Amino acid sequence: MLTLGIETSCDETAVALVRDGRLVGEKLSTQIDLHALFGGVVPEIASREHLRMLPRLFNELMDEYDVTPQMIDNIAVARGPGLLGSLLVGVSFAKGLALSTGASLVGVNHLWAHLLAAGLESELVFPALGLLVSGGHTHTYRIDSPTEFQLIGRTLDDAAGEAFDKVAKVLNFPYPGGRHVDKLAQETEPDTSLFPRAFIDNPSLDFSFSGLKTAVANYVNAHPELIFKEMADEAALDALSGERRAHLCRVCASFNWSVADTLRIKVERALKKNKGMKSLIVAGGVAANSMVRSTMQRVADAKRLQLTLPNLNLCTDNGAMIAYAGSLLAGEGLYHSLDLEAVPRGRVVPLDWKVGKRD
Ligand code: ATP
Ligand code: MG
Ligand code: FE
């Protein structure tokens, strides 16, 4: 069974082909440089760029892997949550293709796809506790199968990735700054008393990262020598030396620790409340973070759980995860009609599948 995946939920345009659970090939175009100028994603620019790139990437994918549209069995598309205008580009393209080829249309929950992505590389084991730490979401799920997700915890304000990006922005690091914070953080030990771990002194499984973000911003503003005068590029970050570098690394490591340790506390609590989990799945852009990865490895080892972490290129947005998640749904006989709707950020993605064949 050949499944095409289409991803246009935010600032990556991506397509991929998955055959029988294995990746055949993929194409990805990131808009990071376009949005960097504005310090964040500009929705109007994002939609236009998806419109420009999606047909191009699709044609390249077909040519490079010697596939014709008629050979595609399922067309999986990220239907949300995401930027509505961006999602509509992918969803409309998917519908047109489904109509013209007769392939089945499968709307994919982008967040579930992040959590299932590692299944392309190793076997997923259920029931699993899922931690999604991405640019827009910090969610924990109880996952009983690839089609049964129960949301058990979420951020009340900023997502973990957002906190990384905002801290990086205060320091004038290149956008998006998470990976630069990560890199500097690896050079030193954290000062665990420097920044707070918010929302841990209550029994909740929910997260809050905006207080931590503000604490770091206040600290940095009180130490203006840490801030780059002009937006730093990678070379400027590498060139930094001496006490200023040591101080900056300490700030990054301490902030990174506060995030990672908050995630640890909530995941351990979630495991206590949800007995019988066989694995821990961590996904999303922040799952690329080295301290988050090592912390989650320790949690899983202590609880004797399998830890499933996608490779770094599968952590951030990509088409392969959409194709793979879509192929799992299609494998269960779950499809959508051409009435499939895109779902913007903040709205719950409905479980509105049809069972059997496309209308
Ligand atoms: P969502 O899936 O919630 O809609 P998104 O798809 O935009 O959001 P992702 O692509 O999964 O988010 O992740 C992007 C986020 O991951 C950014 O905030 C980025 O800074 C962060 N990130 C990427 N690498 C690292 C890293 N090594 N350390 C910390 N954060 C990182
Ligand atoms: Mg992105
Ligand atoms: Fe994403």
Describe this structure in words.
This protein has 359 residues and is an alpha/beta fold. 43% of the residues lie in helices and 19% in strands. It has two domains: 2-118 and 314-355, 2-Layer Sandwich (Nucleotidyltransferase, domain 5); 126-309, Nucleotidyltransferase, domain 5 (2-Layer Sandwich), CATH 3.30.420. The strands form three sheets. It has a five-stranded mixed beta sheet with strand order 3-2-1-4-5, sandwiched between helices. Strands 8-7-6-9-10 form a five-stranded mixed beta sheet, with helices on both faces. A hairpin with a 4-residue loop joins strand 1 and strand 2. The two termini are 19 Å apart. The structure holds adenosine-5'-triphosphate (ATP), magnesium ion and fe (iii) ion (FE). Residues 9-10, 82, 110, 114, 134-137, 161, 164-165, 176-179, 182, 284-286, 288-289, 316-317 line the site of adenosine-5'-triphosphate. Substrate binds at residues 132-136, 165, 178, 182, 289. It is found in: Cytoplasm.
Number of helix segments?
12
* Helix-strand pattern: EEEHHEHEHEEEHHHHHEHEHHEE
- Overall number of domains: 2
User: What is the second-level CATH architecture of the largest domain?
Assistant: 2-Layer Sandwich
CATH topology of the largest domain: Nucleotidyltransferase, domain 5
Span between termini: 19 Å
Strand residues, percent: 15-25%
Please give the CATH class of the largest domain.
Alpha Beta
Helix content: 40-55%
Low-confidence runs (pLDDT<50, min 5 residues)? none
Major sheet: size, sense and barrel closure? 5 strands, mixed
Overall mean confidence score, pLDDT: 96
The distinct bound ligands, ions and cofactors come out as: adenosine-5'-triphosphate, magnesium ion, fe (iii) ion
Give, in spatial order, the strands making up the sheet with the most strands: 3-2-1-4-5
User: What structural class do you assign from the helix and strand content?
Assistant: alpha/beta
Identify the CATH homologous superfamily of the largest domain: ATPase, nucleotide binding domain
Number of strands: 12
Q: Gyration radius, to the nearest Å?
A: 21 Å
Shape: globular
